[in-house]
Amino acid sequence: MPREIITLQVGQCGNQVGTEFWKQICLEHGISSDGMFGNQVFNSDSSSNTPIGDRKDVFFYQADDERYIPRAILLDLEPRVISSIRNSSQRNLYNAENMFSPSNGGGAGNNWASGYHQGEEHEEILFDMLDREADNSESLEGFTLCHSIAGGTGSGLGSFLLERLSDRFPKKLIHTYSVFPNQQEVSDVVVQPYNSLLTLKRLTLNADSVVVLDNTALTRIAVERLQLDHASLAQVNTLVSTVMAASTSTLRYPGYMNNDLVGLLA
User: Fold this and answer.
1) What is d(CA 174, CA 130) in angstroms, rounded to the nearest whole number?
2) Partners of 68 in beta bridges
3) pTM of this prediction exceeds 0.70
4) Could you tell me if 209 and 172 are in contact, meaning their C-beta atoms sit under 8 angstroms apart?
5) DSSP code at position 163
6) How far apart are CA 183 and CA 193, in angstroms?
7) What sign does the CA torsion over 58, 80, 100, 90 have?
């Protein structure tokens, strides 16, 4: 029986990182950009042509038309990133009902309090999507949250979701990929420390596991290891998606250890 995990992508950073993650695991599982299962992945042993028994059901569910659809909910308080995903090559991969940006589309203005308050305003819509995904799972194990701690939506709306998920699903695990700001650059967002501190409190209290994605370290890896003079945002996001895919590989491919999120976090 699969132990399903629902992924929440919150804010600009969370959605950009999440998009790269889905590209990566679709490539690993032989799923095309429209969700169709194209190429079977075979064992590396040349004497055996038996397909690997991967567990796509952990992160995907299969629709009536045989397409594999990510168990993902895409949330942003301004429409730009969600619109770009809707117009990208992956537009047919996601469930359109699981994408949300409010009709006024004003964003959170890089303010934690604004993101949190708008989460309260849209709580019913957000948890309708979450409940639908949870009901569509046979044995839901937990949630994965992708977000940044420095902006308004990723920090404020992300904090709101962490609190409500803990209350609503107390027995489910919450695992986050949290992007921390680059300490070597002066940010244009003067309230970045305030956003970060308030989000860190919610991560401490409500998350079972936090993977720290430090932009300072990611930039250093890109320069020193990948020999990139000026790493672009897309290249850093690809690096993050590789970390995410590697850390979830034991959940998606059966093995002797860490076959579910409980074992991985233990």
Assistant:
1) 14
2) 62
3) yes
4) no
5) H
6) 11
7) negative
Return the number of other C-beta atoms located less than 10 Å from residue 98's C-beta.
20
At residue 197, φ and ψ (nearest 5 deg) are: -65, -45
Average pLDDT, the chain: 88
Answer yes or no: are the C-beta atoms of 154 and 12 closer than 8 Å: yes
Exposed/middle/buried for residue 119 (C-beta within 10 Å: 0-12, 13-18, 19+): buried
pLDDT of residue 38: 75
Task: Identify the pLDDT of residue 173.
Answer: 94
- Backbone Cα Rg of the chain: 18
| Distances from the Cα of 66 to the Cα of 37, 63, 90, 91, angstroms | 8, 5, 16, 17
* Distances, alpha carbon 212 to alpha carbons 98, 99, 115, 148, 178, in Å: 26, 25, 21, 10, 5
Q: 155, 119 in Cβ contact below 8 A?
A: no
Residues in CB range of 174: below 8 A, 6 or more apart: 142, 143, 145, 162, 165, 166, 206, 207, 208, 209
Coil, helix or strand at residue 250: helix
Contacts of 147 (CB under 8 A, 6+ apart): 9, 10, 11, 13, 14, 153, 154, 155, 158, 176, 177, 178, 179
